[in-house]
Amino acid sequence: YIDNYVINNHTFPEGFLFGTATSAYQIEGGWDEDGKGENIWDTLTHTTDLIKDHSTGDIACDSYHKWKEDIALLKDLGVNHYRFSLSWSRILPSGFANHINTAGVLYYKNIIAALKEAGIEPIVTIFHWDTPQPIHDAGGWASEFVVDWFADFARICFELYGNDVKYWLTFNEPKQICHEGYGSGVKAPAIHSPGVGEYLCTHNFLKAHARAWHIYDEEFRSKQNGSISLVIDTPWYEPETPEDEEAAERKRQFVFGWYANPIFNGDYPEIMKTRIANRSKLEGFEESRLPVFTDAEIDYIKGTYDFLGLNSYSSYMVKTDPEPEIGDPSWDDDTGVYEYQKEDWIPSASDWVKVTPWGMRKLLAWIKKTYNDPAIIITENGFTDNGTVGTDENRILYYKTYLSNVLDAIIEDKVNVFGYTVWSLLDNMEWMVGYTEKFGLYHVDFSSPNRTRTPKPALDYYKSVIKTHCLVEKCEDEKGRYGIA
Ligand code: GBH
Q: Which family is it part of (predicted)?
């Protein structure tokens, strides 16, 4: 396959951040150790049979005990940043700020100190989907009180760790929690409320994000000198024909603009406001199912970013669909487009991840144009196997071609991308599909109590890219000189 791709032979800029990412629930285990409280993923995995292989994150990669080994792996890989998340219920067992768990605090203190010592910049996600169960029981992301509860937690995080953290991310992929957690109901907390709950959840998420950003900005920035944003995820949506561009753009706005527009441009995208208002009316609602921000709220949320964290894995083709009939409310019908992936795109072990590197370049250029040229760090990008790794050639192809398109975006399209992060350092608990789809640069043996980590072939390739800043054997620098590698 590789012959079909032209790989950029320039070098990544000096200071470019290369790293890997993980999240607390997916790797730590230690689910009830040292005073940790329960979260909605503990509940879902313990009380339902919704996880594909009936597994849990009770032990996962056992990184609660093996964090030193993980940092040694990062050192060996040569990354200059590591993105991980804080478990809210490990630090605040009840979710509320009434009791801080010293052991939980210490766990992340140690990790951050060890990363610093190894010259690896910690990039810290405050919330990666693991809502404390008591916060959920009190209303969770559907209650506006969550803005205060999250703000309390965020402030504690800045106080505890802010002197050593230069990059904060409030949320990872709020769309997955809101759309899948409160809309379709296929992820924790498994609430089925399409077309209503997901908009409510998003409304509160946006307010909570903005509150945390302002707290950092007003109370901590001048002392701690870090920066703060959030992670928004989207595939690239490519129109099937030029006539399908309106539908493709509509889909981008419903997926990405839903979160990015309020933060980068102000308020929800126009297309969402009009479509949801119209359909709500036809459905018999007196008001739009999309909650309305006051002018003061629009101002308060707008501009609450210092950069953008972007997760993107793959692409979809979009085709104009006839307007969906009026029936039960749903985000899908509010969006109203048809999407698919092509048969000849190279597959991974995840049905939604196909090798479409050109989509990454188009997405980056679209973000630059649509959101006022923000500084961007790609906070996730990765490829799955099903446990059989072999020569790992498609994962190598994936990184090589995606990084090449990132470099094209930087050099040709002048997109301000300052970092790239592989999801993931380790095979881990991949949410609803458990341990069946594996994103790691390291294979993890989940049948061994030791959770042995073994490098996959793609690890060597990524190592060489980090070292040489070059994707091919011989590179040219910005001045046209060869042989940097
Ligand atoms: C991210 O989620 C998460 O941040 C991370 O925790 C996770 O492990 C990683 O990526 C890999 O999944 O084909 O339309 O049904 C990505 C979330 C999961 C969102 C798959 C889209 C299916 C899209 N994506 N989901 S669709």
A: Belongs to the glutamate-gated ion channel (TC 1.A.10.1) family. Belongs to the glycosyl hydrolase 1 family.
Burial class (CB in 10 A: 0-12, 13-18, 19+), 221: middle
Ligand 1 atom, smallest distance to 431 CA = 8
- Gap between the Cα atoms of 428 and 442, Å rounded: 10
Is 440 in contact with 424 (CB distance < 8 Å)? yes
pLDDT tens per residue across span 345-365: 999 999 999 999 999 999 999
Give the mutation target among 311, 350, 381 for probing the ligand 1 site: most ligand atoms within 8 A of CB. 311
pLDDT tens-digit series, residues 463-477: 999 999 999 988 876
How buried is residue 11: exposed, middle or buried, by Cβ count under 10 Å (0-12/13-18/19+)?
buried
Closest residue CA from atom 17 of ligand 1: 176
Our mutation pick for probing the ligand 1 site, out of 169, 233, 259, 422, counting the most ligand atoms within 8 A of Cβ, is: 233
- The pairing of beta strand 337-340 with beta strand 354-355: unpaired
Q: How far is CA 87 from CA 40, 191, 387, in A?
A: 12, 22, 27
Q: Which residues line ligand 1 (CB under 6 A)?
A: 23, 26, 172-173, 176, 233, 311, 352, 380, 423, 430, 439
Q: Give residue-wise pLDDT tens across range 186-233.
A: 999 999 999 999 999 999 999 999 999 999 999 999 999 999 999 999
Instruction: Give kind and range of the element (H or E) at residue 273.
Output: helix 270-282
Q: What is the pTM of this model?
A: 0.97
ipTM, interface predicted TM-score of the complex: 0.92
CA distance 388 to 392: 9
Whole-number Å distance, alpha carbon 312 to ligand 1 midpoint, is 9
Helix (H) / strand (E) containing 40:
helix 40-47
d(C-alpha 67, C-alpha 85), whole Å: 13
Number of Cα atoms under 13 Å in the Cβ half of residue 153: 28
Atom 20, ligand 1: residue with shortest CA distance = 352
